[in-house]
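Contributing new records

If you add data, match the layout below exactly. Sequence lines come first and carry their own label; structure lines follow with theirs. Keep one chain per record. Anything else will be rejected by the validation script.
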Amino acid sequence: MADAWKVFKCPACSMCHGRKSSGHNCPHCGQRVNEKTPVVDHAANPAELRMKVLMANTPSELRESLVSRLDLSETLFDSSSNFSPSKGLSVLRKSLDEDGKFTIDAVKLSFKLQGYEEEVSNFLEMAEAQGTILRLAEGIWQFLE
């Protein structure tokens, strides 16, 4: 757990945030965070860190309610079959050649294999607009992330 994420509690504003190490400013109030800043929890990955920071910043009297609502929302919304930008990026990475480039045909095939064939055009437009991919020629892009 050497590279574990840490949940810091700012001594100035009492808000929690996550980082891998000290030596930065609190994102809430700007107070300098150093080695003496309390670490209230650890996380193994960014997703776990996000949940731990969320819980640490939730008032104790509301935590139980929040946990039950989050559990309920997970059972109501099965994200495994729904398209999302992160799933699109994952599928896109599978389409890359050894130079980090991909063609429209490779992306269409990868998206089709995952059941997202209707999403290709919108996803590529969004990724290009956000600077995640760069159009090199007609139907050829470079992955920049």
